[in-house]
Amino acid sequence: MCGIVGYTGKELALTPVLEGLRRLEYRGYDSAGIALAVNAGEKLWIEKRAGKLGNLEEILGDSVPKSHSGIGHTRWATHGGPTDENAHPHLDNEGKLALIHNGIIENYIELRAELEKRGHVFKSETDTESVAHLLSDARKSHKGDLAAAMREVCKQLRGSFTLLAIHSDEPGRIVGARRNSPLVVGVGDGENFLASDVSAFISHTKRALELGQDEIADITADSIVITDLSGKVLPHNEYEISWDASAAERGGYEHFMLKEIFEQPKAIADTLLGRITGLDGEVTKGINLDGIDKVVIVACGTAYNAGLVGKYAIEKWANISVDVELASEYRYREPAVDSKTLLVPISQSGETMDTLMAMRYAKEHGARVFAVCNTNGSTIPRESDAVLYTHAGPEIAVASTKAFETQLVAMYLLALHLGRVRGTIDKKLMVQIEAELAELPAKVEQVLETVEPLRALTRKFKDSTSMLFLGRHVGFPVALEGALKLKELAYMHAEGFAGGELKHGPIALIDEGTPVIAIMPAEGSLLAEKMASNIQEVKARGAVIIAIADAPLASADHLVRIPKTHEFLAAVLAVVPLQVIAYEMAVARGNDVDQPRNLAKSVTVE
Ligand code: F6R
Predict the structure, then answer these.
(1) pLDDT digits over 143-183, tens only?
(2) SS3 content of the chain, % helix, strand, coil (to 5)
(3) What is residue 384's predicted lDDT score, i.e. its pLDDT?
(4) Average of pLDDT values for 275-292?
(5) Catalytic site residue 601?
(6) Would you say the CB of residue 390 lies under 6 angstroms from ligand 1?
(7) Which of 522, 525, 569, 529 minimizes the C-alpha distance to 548?
(8) Does residue 343 carry a pLDDT above 80?
């Protein structure tokens, strides 16, 4: 939820720390702050401001001291409102220790009461500040060893956290810790980094180290020491980051979201590469699918919508029952799960707390876990038996687009795999789907070539108060996804419905002029006829119909044509115009497209 970066090395720290924050701002933008270590023993230099990073940058004049190590934070507020006081870093009473945090410290109230009794004075309402004071005391009792102090403090904390701390007595040293929240080490030449994700340092180094649960990283410009909470030194697990800095830049597009929409053909092609006719042994070697009698997909938000499409494909091709569960609901209702359950968490970030916890619950009860994830080395894949990585590349815009498309593709690949392993998929059908999958990138490209008129059409509905989305079969989850995109970007009431459900209540929402987006099933199918009737029902009550269809449709007021494909794969094509509608509506309404209000990209708190 929050973005965290630390730099120590040959450069002046302000530049890489600010650059890291710019790249991490998608994780939260309620406030931003920086602390720099200047001279040993002197107070730290610190500046922080409520609002976006730009607010902080505006006040950073020439007075920023020359320092070679520092930490920076961009916040998504949980405990305490988005004010200057609650912005990170938080200091100890002497102003010599600074701490930044992502996550939630669940026992902060008792810690704070205890610390106040010991004379600590608090300046904010955050859960984080308790840790700064606690660490300060612990450091004194560990004779100034910040890493030893961090280990002791972590044992006292409940909740989830990534923590980074610096102390002015040792200006070149940064100590980090993580539990249920991401932290990676960037390995440089005469410089090292700690950050929430690799985008923060990708223009400096492509070498990174994974940190495991409850591990402490102690870095200087020339050294990296990783330990567990007992102080035992652990081996480094270094990997090479496969994308470069330009992937994390806007590349001439007005917004990251637009760039990511246009990157979808490539993201789909990359995800399909070498996998259409069978999943690589590398992907499947960790998992035995014998005797599986149920598939449970757990995910949140957009990833959940991808899971719903997955259910249609897996049930049909692999002839196995599939439940799709909102991760936040699943984990708390103690569902029946055993070793015959295949649990499929879907997550772009691989760090979504609810999905992670749902997965851990199922694992504890014996489930086998086959994850779908976009982020190498993140927690969900690391704790899974097998992982099918989507190759969407970095997704910076808060609203998910290319990650969703690649999650759909991963669902098809998984459904085909299960169908093959279980011997349930008809050979002819399989060959047909494989051929259609291979054509998807080009067909998405075709859809993208027609978006300009759609953008103009969208602006006509700029002042609508509500927009409804109707779909059947895989068009239903697509309708849910279209409505979710519109809500998060245009701040407009939007709902997705299954076409057949309309007359059971939602049709009462239709009024003169209500825009209704109809996602049409394939031309000539039984469901296309059913949907045509649903369209007549809403039209008769005044709705304006924008149809997404693979054929002409006389009842549509506006038609967006998409290419024909297999009925299950049509979700990949139909969602593109909906992404464009949400994007354009946000632009037309003057909203912040890449950083919509109240949201953050990676939801690492419950
Ligand atoms: C919506 C969106 C969110 C995420 C959800 C899960 O555009 O991006 O709904 O899909 O927060 O995130 P991941 O996939 O990282 O687990």
Answers:
(1) 999 999 999 999 999 998 999 999 999 999 999 999 988 99
(2) 40, 20, 40
(3) 96
(4) 90
(5) yes
(6) no
(7) 522
(8) yes
N-to-C CA span, the chain = 11
Distance (angstroms) between ligand 1 centre and the Cα of 488 equals 11
Whether the bond into 89 is cis, omega within 30 of 0: yes
Which amino acid, residue 248? A
Q: Are 208 and 186 in contact (CB under 8 A)?
A: yes
Output the CA torsion sign for 79, 85, 89, 93: negative
| Residue in 227, 368, 335, 312 with CA at minimum distance from that of residue 570 | 312
Compute the half-sphere exposure of residue 324: CA atoms within 13 Å on the CB side of its CA.
20
Structure tokens at 551: 């054929």
Give the dihedral sign, CA 154/156/162/168: negative
Look at the block and give the residue holding tokens 């005391």.
Answer: 137
- Taking only the tens place, the pLDDT of each residue in 537-565 is 999 999 999 999 999 999 999 999 999 99
For residue 401 and ligand 1, the question of a CB distance below 6 A is answered with: no
249-274: average pLDDT = 93
Nearest ligand 1 atom, CA 401: 7
Exposed/middle/buried for residue 112 (C-beta within 10 Å: 0-12, 13-18, 19+): buried
The full DSSP string for 444-484 is: HHHHHTTHHHHHHHHHHTTT-SEEEEEE-TTHHHHHHHHHH
Q: What is the 3-state secondary structure (H, E, C) of 110-167?
A: HHHHHHHHCCCCCCCCCCHHHHHHHHHHHHHHCCCCHHHHHHHHHHHCCEEEEEEEEE
Nearest CA to ligand 1 atom 5: 301
Q: Is any ligand 1 atom within 6 A of the Cβ of residue 199?
A: no
The answer to whether the CB of 125 falls within 8 A of the CB of 71 is no
Tokens describing residue 510? 């239709």
pLDDT of residue 27 exceeding 90? no
Q: Which atom of ligand 1 is nearest to the CA of 301?
A: 9
Residue 503 pLDDT exceeds 90: no
Question: Could you give the CA distance from residue 436 to residue 442 in angstroms, rounded to a whole number?
Answer: 10
Check pLDDT > 80 for residue 326.
Answer: yes
Q: Which residues pair with 470 in a beta bridge?
A: 497, 518
Taking the C-alpha atoms of residue 479 and residue 168, their distance in angstroms, rounded to an integer, is: 54
Cα–Cα distance between 167 and 136 in angstroms, integer?
9
- For the CA of 485, the nearest atom of ligand 1: 7
Q: In what order do the strands lie in the sheet with 368-373?
A: 322-326, 294-299, 341-347, 368-373, 386-389
Which residue is it, tokens 């054509």?
A: 439
Q: What angle do CA 192, 193, 198 make, to 5 degrees?
A: 130
What confidence score (pLDDT) does residue 83 get? 95
| Cα-to-chain-centroid distance, residue 253 | 21
Which is nearest to 16 in space by CA: 170, 169, 205? 205
Question: Cα separation of 568 and 67, whole Å?
Answer: 56
Dihedral angle sign, alpha carbons of residues 354, 356, 360, 363: positive
To test the ligand 1 pocket, which listed residue (578, 603, 604, 605) has its Cβ within 8 A of the most ligand atoms? 603
Which residues, at least 6 apart from 168, have a Cβ–Cβ distance to it below 8 Å? 37, 38, 39, 40, 41, 42, 43, 44, 96, 97
